[in-house]
Amino acid sequence: MMTFTKDFPDDFLWGGATAANQLEGACQVDGKGLSASDVFIFDANAPKERWLDQWAGMTHAQVAEAQDPDSKKYYPKRNGNDFYHHYEEDIALFAEMGFKCFRMSIAWTRIFPRGDETEPNEAGLRFYDKVFDTLRKHNIEPIVSLSHYEMPLTLVTEYGGWPNRKIIDFYVQFAQTVFQRYRTKVKYWMTFNEINCVKHHPYVSIGVVEENHPHLEQAKYQGAHHQFVASALATKACHAIIPDSKVGCMISYQILYPHTCHPDDLQACEEVQRVSLFFSDVQARGYYPAWTERMFAEKNVVLEKAVGDDEILRQYPVDFVSFSYYMSSTVSAHPEKLEGVKGNLITGGIRNPHLPESDWGWQIDPKGLRLALNQLYDRYQKPVFIAENGLGAVDTVGPSGIIEDDYRIDYLRLHIEQMREAIADGVQLFGYTWWGPIDMVSASTSQMSKRYGFIHVDQDDMGNGSKKRSRKKSFHWYKKVIASNGVDLSN
């Protein structure tokens, strides 16, 4: 008789996820250079519906002004929440929650400030030595993203970003440097964060300024191809330098539903979904799907491949597939006739009347996570890791000084229940990292007030505050969940 289990594996990796550009601060300290994300501003006087504009695409003037030392604009990601000076305190709080792992990124610009140097910045390398040693002291496994929207700004302004094949060599040099340095400290790596998001924000994904670009689609997919090759070469190097290492790809994944059962809606849904999966297809399977030939022809994209590129992709696929999951979306062949999603979503989509929404208009769909896990595992038959999942919300400090964030607890409970169902379905899920365990600057809107953390940071949207850390109600709840290995989900 066949048996199945809904239990999480004994060695399941519970933890939290962050990114250096949103967390660390200390911009240009100890030799760090400016990254692509360091040019984003926050303007409290701008209408909220305009806050996403820069995330969707920067202008040349905005990039130039950001490099002016006399600029009066506020650049939140240069400050983060000052993890750079609080890492010991923050990691101790993660350990108190019982974290088994911590997903983070290495800021490329701390190691190679311009990106094209021949020698790394020792001060940057020493900083991550201290972070990894602190994690090890608390028995927390680091899971490290090599590139999380943090490419050096010089590679954008002087090289034109990832459409320039030279960036492959710079990236591989960076990867080999950190693999060698941290070969005894880091086992799990991810090559690119949300690599498929080049579709929506090519500036921060591949370093392409859209303004007046003569052939944006060509630049997007040429840049993506170079990232695929770079990812494969990094995987090769990682396995050689760290024999027991595991290297993963990472995509942003929204489960898509057809708006109706009309065949046109089904076809539209399939076409949108597979464009996202194309990126993990190449990295996990090692080749371009057949249908992309038609897509490239319709977009008038002609990829320039060097001799041997296809062989490199086939020889060095990733070991596991990871993804971010925040919501599902609905697709129609005729979206102009329907109500679109609300809030700050550049991905678009049709509003699903069956789902609630977050404070930022993201539709909450826990059952979609089970579907996503099954789809990805069925497709690739490789271990799966949930690299990001979370709820951005407006938190209010109560009279007792505690944030009673039951909405965050409810969100997390419902998603963990669906993770358990996916494991019962047979999915080989080996870890989960909540985005983000501590309040930090929002990737898309550059706010601090869009809070995800179990740990509150006393800092407002303009960087004012004591930066004092304090535990929310969800901190204690997640601690209990981890201690019970996902069994105790009660209040």
Automatic annotation (TrEMBL):
Its EC number is 3.2.1.86. Keywords: Glycosidase, Hydrolase. PROSITE patterns: GLYCOSYL_HYDROL_F1_2. GO terms for molecular function: 6-phospho-beta-glucosidase activity. The keyword Hydrolase applies. Pfam families: Glyco_hydro_1. It is an enzyme of class 3 (hydrolase). The keyword Hydrolase applies. SUPFAM superfamilies: (Trans)glycosidases. InterPro entries: GH (IPR017853), GH_1_N_CS (IPR033132), Glyco_hydro_1 (IPR001360). Transmembrane segments: none annotated. Belongs to the glycosyl hydrolase 1 family. This is 6-phospho-beta-glucosidase. The lineage of its organism: Bacteria, Pseudomonadati, Pseudomonadota, Gammaproteobacteria, Enterobacterales.
